[in-house]
Design a protein that fits this description.
By secondary structure, this protein is an all-alpha fold. The protein folds into 2 domains: 23-94 and 105-141; 143-252, no CATH class. Helix content is 74%, strand content 0%. The chain contains 10 helices and no strands. The longest helix has 34 residues, at 95-128. The chain crosses the membrane at residues 34-51, 63-86, 98-130, 150-168, 188-209, 215-237. Belongs to the TMEM175 family. One of its GO terms (cellular component) is membrane.
């Protein structure tokens, strides 16, 4: 099913936070309802993953937990926003979209607890620098080999989620004629696919380096390449868009 496109461009620019796209998905479907429930469950699992405090020391650790919880919460919200934008942009509800969305929801539920554990561990390593070792010992991480394995899990989950999004956007691009994507929208969709592929490559490199003993300490720093690489891709595509707009203006 493909929902009817909304033709009021002014409304899209003033209300939506995606001004370069005409949003085709205006009504919330059952696919999105189910997805929002799953995201809400995952966010709840992330926040409530730790046991309730039973004494003052536990309470202090619980309050400090707001830092890793916030990091994991931000990542899940980023993934949710990508999901929200996809269904607003394309309004697709066919079998392929349902199948890929189901895989995505399974991944979201599966990574909720590991995501909390990973950021708890990263925060605990920061506390070690200040002489507090109890938190990392409570997590059962006793050497750098375990830390490298933990980073591999995170990188693999990260790559899988972006692989699903890349497939979803590729699918939308294949149905561009049916849903009426403009030339600019096709280019932006292709840009999204390229950005997702870039994320997959970087996450895969992190997972590989995290399995190599001399390099696993530095593996996570590869994630910082996401910003310059993503910015470079967007700059190239926006340059193409400007040329396209200039050409359209000259012929008009």
């Amino acid at each position: 099913m493909i929902r009817q496109a909304v033709t009021d461009g002014l409304e899209a620019r003033e209300i939506d936070h995606d001004p370069h796209f005409q949003w085709r998905g205006r009504n919330v479907t059952r696919i999105e309802n189910l997805s929002d429930i799953v995201f809400a469950l995952a966010l709840g699992m992330l926040v409530s993953a730790s046991s309730p405090p039973i004494d003052f020391t536990d309470l202090k650790f619980h309050l400090l937990g707001i830092i890793p919880v916030t990091a994991g919460f931000a990542i899940l919200l980023l993934v949710w926003n990508m999901h929200f934008v996809y269904f607003r942009r394309y309004g697709l509800g066919d079998r392929t979209t349902i199948f890929l969305n189901a895989i995505l929801l399974l991944l979201i539920l599966f990574i909720a607890y590991p995501l909390r554990f990973i950021f708890d561990a990263l925060f605990s390593y920061i506390l070690i620098a200040f002489g507090h070792t109890a938190r990392i010992e409570a997590l059962g991480i006793f050497d750098t080999m375990m830390a490298g394995e933990l980073m591999r899990y995170y990188a693999i989950g990260y790559a899988l989620i972006f692989a699903v999004y890349a497939l979803m956007y590729r699918h939308a691009l294949k149905r561009a004629d049916e849903i009426g994507l403009s030339t600019k929208e096709r280019m932006l969709t292709a840009l999204s696919v390229q950005v997702f592929i870039m994320q997959i490559i970087i996450a895969s490199a992190v997972a590989i380096l995290a399995a190599m003993p001399p390099l696993w300490v530095w593996a996570s720093f590869l994630f910082f390449f996401n910003w310059p690489a993503g910015y470079g891709l967007r700059w190239l595509y926006h340059r193409k868009l400007r040329k396209l707009e200039q050409a359209e203006g000259a012929t008009g």
